[in-house]
Every structure is written in structure tokens, then in C-alpha cells.
Amino acid sequence: MAVNATPESSPPWVLDFADGDRSMADLLGGKGANLAEMTRLGLPVPHGFIVTTAACREYLRHGSEPPGLTALVDAHLARLERDSGRRLGDPADPLLVSVRSGGRFSMPGMMETVLDVGVTDDTVAGLARRGGDRFAWDCYRRLVQMYGRTVLGVDGALFEQELAAARTTLHVSHDGELDALTLRALVASFRRIIQREVGEDLPQDPREQLRRAVLAVFSSWNVPRARFYRRQEGIPDDLGTAVNVVEMVYGNTGPRSGSGVCFTRDPASGELGAYGDYLPNAQGEDVVNGSRATIPLAQLAQLDPAAYTALTGHLRTLEEHYRDLCDVEFTIEDGTLWVLQTRVGKRTAAAAFRIACALVDEGLIDLDEALRRVDGRQLSRLLHPQLGDTSGHDLLATGLPASPGAGVGEVALDHETAARWAREGRDVVLVRQETSPDDLPGIVAARAVVTARGGLTSHAAVVARGMGRPCVVGAADLTIDLETRTVTTHAGVTLAEGDTVSVDGTSGRVHLGRVPVQPSAVATRLAGGATDTGTDPVSDAVLRLLAHADERRRVGVRANAETLPDALAARQYGAEGIGLFRTEHTLLGPRRELVERLVLDRDRDDALRQIGELARADLVQVLEVMDGLPVVVRLLDPPLHEFLPDLTSLAVEVAVNDATGVEDAEAEERLAAVRRWHESNPMLGLRGVRLLTVLPELVDVQARAVAEAALDLRARGLDPRPEVMVPLVAESAELVLVRARVEAVLATVAAEHRTTLRVPVGVMVELPRAALTSGRLAAVADFFSFGTNDLTQTTWGMSRDDAETGFLRTYREQGLLAGDPFSTLDVDGVGRLVSLAVREGRRTRPDLGLGACGEHAGDPDSVRFFVAAGLDYVSCSPPRVPVARLEAGRAEVLEPVAGGAWADTR
Ligand code: PEP
Ligand code: MG
């Protein structure tokens, strides 16, 4: 029977474990839903109930305890007492409960937990009968400390100082060695601290402890670090957390007890085998906070063979049930094993690919499911570089390889320094004794993270792995001195804050100085083609899933490239053509002066001839690499001022000439010309098709270059397939004009070669007006390519060049925007224009070609939108081609993306 009197219109506010299952994570939170599932599976889970996210949302909405919640909690508590055979507040044999947060999405360590709720002056003696005096006073000490900090808001450092003093007095190194008398004295001193700081005492009514602990966990949904974490991870702010109220079981009752965290497979490498950390005579928090050195899980097999065997059996059950890597928290109380938590575990990108393929081989999932289990963000992490040759760079320390990849930067010893230096554009490596959730901004800002303490499941490891930051934990050879701001190694090397180190998160090594960084093994394998299998299981898995994605996907993937090396890289990464060849790239560097000469009318004809020749030479190379594949050549696009001398400098030069009596007629002439062409807002001025209309000779030379390059290659027996694209069109008449000019030149060149040449002419849709009038545009275009960089800029009215440094960051910090519309497509606004243009364009012309070539075309979430919008291809920078291939394949096996939230469309 579910005891419940939740208001009728609302989902239940409290549910027993026995009444839920894993499908209810929205309501029960991930932790609660999995506890309920494990209860159904018959695993040894302590009794408990869940105060749901619906109750939390109600609390957050009104800022006070929902009426009736206490009565509901009391009713469920009565059932818990019946099931466990103990009563809260019973002086003879008290029930204690843990009160744990747990939202829909895992937010490791970000919210609060209160353990040992139910210890009071009246119950501590009864508790001692269960596990001894030391145990009872240790529980009491933990409760006062957690309640003081979490519920009453007392500064946790005040308690830590007392604990440190007690350890020093007793000459012990960790809290587990404090004796009963000391713990009892600590309880008294903690209560005095609380009295002094907030004028309250720990309630001696256990139900009041429970009530306030639940509300404090609700409130912790909105602590700054939790909000920050949600922003980083794209988790909505309005979900609220559930609260799990669970019968306490104790890992700290003596040597036959302990706590551990483990995985069904190695979450770093993906290798098969139970793997984790165990700490005898300890509660779970001691394992994850890194305060004591854990032992490898395998040693539990010797310490307690029966518990180990039972545990590995449960791990197998869970993996087969969830058909995925699971992580598990467990406690052994006097030889009895309890499973306290499980979830589908976080893993490195490498492990994600490897595990997905292993599960296919084990027959637990099929290849489509494997494709759902990996994503483009993980793949792009794997394509990241690794540390190269470390010889000549002293090995400073070796720790546990918690998150792979390489990071080089200056040592920063706290998160504020790390974040500040990163904002100044410096590369930093965050080096800490251990990390706490408060270090999150530092982890985000750092190129890599190193901690002196902590295991592979420590907070730093979990967070860094989730974010793809290279991370080494438990580098015990490092001593960090925050007074002198130095780090000293075992071998006696002293580093000052600001010295450079190189971190290898794959091997766990930290080196002195700047080690060169090498491309990733996966990237190298991809570049080498898919033939040499069997050398590296991660690359094998990536290639296998990429091949499956290729089989599944319907949209093409092209690259944005205009140089020979980029075109070669694009092909190696699997590009099926070039979706954007920016012709202005043929005019970079000193070549830029050619456009200046054209505009300022100096040796115009010669300048035009050279512009054409340069374009032709580059095009021949790229068309040759892309033989048989489309190459979309975009006519000159950038704002004119990018080709002209700077007005201010020129004006100063002329003024100085005037003042010093120097005659420089050419400078004066240039100044007059630059003034004539000057615009106050060039990004919205003379660029794209407008420049081509004002200087139509530019169209002629470029069209000729395309035609001649193609005919050259054709003469050599190749199959060049150029297409011409006109940028920044707002009105179909612009396209009609330029298209006519392009086709005239193509026809002339073809006639000169006594042949014919068919080159499709298309248009970039990168202005809202183009999208809104796409029906008319399609009548004169062979294809559309969505230039979503400009389309985002012009739809939002927000400069694409300044957004990151300007107000957009403030917007994100204030939660006004979930993501950056310049990296992930704004489906609601820009996406709507894309969809409209697709629909109206195809209505006019059913065979209209459709592509996207802005930055978004290589962004995992946006690729899935483009697929759903019905495009034929996406085109992105060469290194992102594999990411786009993978996501385009995933789009076919996942739910289609709807136009909705755009920060995280999954
Ligand atoms: C675009 O605007 O999306 C685009 C691809 O063109 P560019 O970035 O060259 O302006
Ligand atoms: Mg553009």
C-alpha cells in the first residue's frame, strides 16, 4: 500500500522504494529510481523512501514546507520503522537514517546530504550497544557536523579546525583513529560552535532533525555551485531534487565493516572486470572525499571473501539488467553487504566507445544501441592531442590516471587563481591537495587537474572525467603549501605557483615544463584509413561505430577547406566533398593588397589577373584531391575594410607628413580613397554579393578561375565537380544578376575550350530576409547552403566577433541563455528560419540542393537538427568531419530533434 495524501492534482510527494522503478527518474531522481529498481531486483538495499522532486518543486516555488508533507513523511517513516524493526528515537536501539539528495541528472557532490539523522543525547547510548562507544560518538559527531553545516549554514571550516586540532593532539593522521572520548568532546565543542554561530542547538527531537534535513536538501538545489554545475552541463534549473531517506547501515563499526565504490568495468579504459576503491572501517563519504587512502577493490577478496563474492555477483546482475556499465556504492556492516546506490556510470570517452562495442560482442545490445551510447562530444575528445616525447622533462609525480588527454599550463593552486588566469588567456593546471565541489570553476578553467590525494572515484576524478579535462589524482609525491604558494615533490623539486607543468591524464604522470603535445591515436588512425585494425581497441571501436553511423546516415558530410593540406585531411576524415571553399583564403597575407589595388584603382587589370590566377591555382589542387566529389566555391565574401588599409593609421600618417612638411601624394590619394569607401558598420555593409555587384569584375575573374581549373583537370582525365555559391544574398534579384554573369563567363571559357561546362550555382542563406523569401530565391538557385554563422549574427542582431568576450558571457552567468547560439544552433529562432527556408525552397523547387556550412554544421546537437530539418549535407572543418558523421548516423537511431530547447537537445 502506498501511504499518500499528496494533493490530487500533484504527482506523489513521497514514495517507498518498493513502489517505484527506474523509469520514474523524473519524479524520484536518478538515485531514488535506481534504489527502487534494485529493491525490485531483490538486491540487498536498506529500507527507505523518497521525498519526490514534485515536493521539492513545491517547496522551491513557495519557499516553505508544503502543507501536509510532514504527515506524509511520518506515515512513510512508520513503514520504514516496521520494515527495519527499529524506531527513530528509540533509546534502546535507535533507527538512524541518511537524508540524501538525488536529482534527475547526476550532479556529483553538488548538493547536500545529512547522515546519521536520529542520534540524540537520549539515543547515543542505545547506538553504542550496536557498535560500541567509539562508533556511537563518531555517528553523533558526523551528524552534528553535517547538520551544523548543511541545515544551519555554519562554516564547515570551524568544525574541520577542531578535528585537525584533535588529530594533532592525539598524533593520528585521520579521523578514523580518534577515540570515543575525543569524539564525545568534539560533539560538545561542535554544539558550542553552532550555539555561538547561529544561536541554536542540534534538535533533540529526531523527527525535527529529519524534517529540517529534508528541507535543507531541497534548498541545496539552488546553492551557487549546483547552479554553476547545471549551467555547465546544460541541466534545467527547474527540475528540483528528490530526497532519499534511507535506513543507515554502518561501515564504521569495526574491522569487519567498510565502504566502497566500484564499477562493473573500468570507467577510464573500458576494460572488463570489477574495479574500484574500498576503505575498511569507514562510511561512504570517507571513500569519496579522498581523506584516507583507499585500497583497490580486489583486496576485498582477501579481507572478506564472502562479501566480495556476493558483491561481484550483484555487479553482474546489475550490468546484465541495465545492459551497461554501472557504478555502485556499497557498505559492509559486520560482514553483511548492503548496496546503497547504483547508476549507469560516467565513463571516459575512450571507455564509452570500447564498452559500447564490447556489449555488442557480448550480445547485450545491438549496433544501433551502441551508436546511441556514444556521442560526438566524446568523439571530439578522443580526437584531442596527447603528450608527446617527455624526455628532458623531469617526472614530478605519478598519480592515478583519472581522465585521459594532455594538458599543459601554469600551476594554479586554487580555483580563483585558475579561473582568473584563464580569463587572462593563460593556460593553467589546477593543482590541489584534493578537490571539493567548490573547486568547480577552477576545473572548468584548467587545461588539466592534479590532486595530491583522492582515488579514481574522488570528486575531482568524477567531475574532470565528465567534462573531458585531463586529470591525475592521488599524486601523493606532491606536497602543496598554500602559505608559500609552492609545490614540493618527493625528490625535493620545488615549483612556484605559475611554473609550467605538463599533465598526462592517460598515464597519470606529471612532468616539469612544456612537453610537446601530439595528435591523438584515434585521429592518427582515422587519418591513416580504416585498414590497420587490432592495434588499439579504442580506435577499433571508434572506426566500427563510425562505419555503422555511415551505414545509417542519410545526410552527406562535407568539409570547409580551401588549402591542399586541409582538403587532404578532410578526405582522410571521410569528407564527401567540400561544402565551403572560401575564396578569400586564396587572398590572405600579402595577397590581400591585390583587392586594395582593385578598389583603389591602381594597376587594376594586373590585380584582377593575379586574383584570378591565385584562385585558379588553389582550386586546381583542391579539386584534384576531391576528384569526383562536389566542391562548392563561394565567391569573395568578407567586408571590404578587411582588404583596405586602416583609416586611422593612414590619417595619422598623412597628418604627420603635413606637420613635418613631407610630401607624399600617394598616401594622400590612398587616404581619400579609403575615406570614400569607409563604412561605419562594415559587417552589415559592402560585403558578399553587394561587393560583387559593385565590383562585378570580381565575379568574372573568379568564375573564370573555376571554369579553367575544372577544364584543366578534365583535360588530365579527372572528374572535377565545382559549384559556385553566392554569399550574403538578401534579394533574389541580386542572385539573378550575379548568376547571369557567372554563367556568361562559364559559357565563354567553355567555348574557348570547345566544350561545355555545367556548374550549379547556389546561394548562401545567411540573412533572415533570404530565409523569409526563400521561395523566390529557390526559383533562381540550384542549391541553398545555410551560413548559420551570419544567420545567427543577423537573426540575433549580435556580433559574432564580440559575443564571447562581451555580454553573452554575462547572459550565460545570469542564466538568461543556456548555451552559446554561435556554437549550438538556436533551434527556436535561427532553426525556425532554416526550417522555413527548407520548406518554401523545396516547394518552389523539389530538387533544390540543401546544405549547411556554418560552424554549427560540426556541432553534435546542431547536426541532429539539420538532419531533422531535411538537409542533404552538412559541411564543417576537417577535424569535425568524424563528429558530424557519427552524429548524422545517431540522428537516424535516436528520437528526432524537435524545435525546442537548444542547449541540450538530447
Ligand atoms: C556563415 O556565415 O555561416 C558562413 C559559413 O560564412 P562565413 O563564416 O565565411 O561568414
Ligand atoms: Mg557568412
Describe the structure.
There is one protein chain. With 906 residues, the protein is an alpha/beta fold. It has 35 helices and 33 strands. The chain has an eight-stranded mixed beta sheet with strand order 14-24-23-16-17-18-19-15. Strands 26-27-28-29-30-31-32-33 form an eight-stranded parallel beta barrel, surrounded by six helices. Strand 32, helix 34 (860-869) and strand 33 (873-876) form a beta-alpha-beta unit. It binds phosphoenolpyruvate and magnesium ion. Phosphoenolpyruvate binds at residues 580, 582, 637, 766, 787-790, 853-854.
Bound molecules: phosphoenolpyruvate, magnesium ion
Strand content: 15-25%
As a whole number of angstroms, the C-alpha radius of gyration is 32 Å
Count of helices?
35
Structural class: alpha/beta
Q: Looking across the biggest beta sheet, what order are the strands in?
A: 14-24-23-16-17-18-19-15
Mean pLDDT: 90
> What share of the residues lie within helices?
40-55%
Low-pLDDT parts are: 899-906
What is the approximate shape? elongated
Number of strands: 33
Distance between the termini: 36 Å
What summary fits the major beta sheet? Answer: 8 strands, mixed
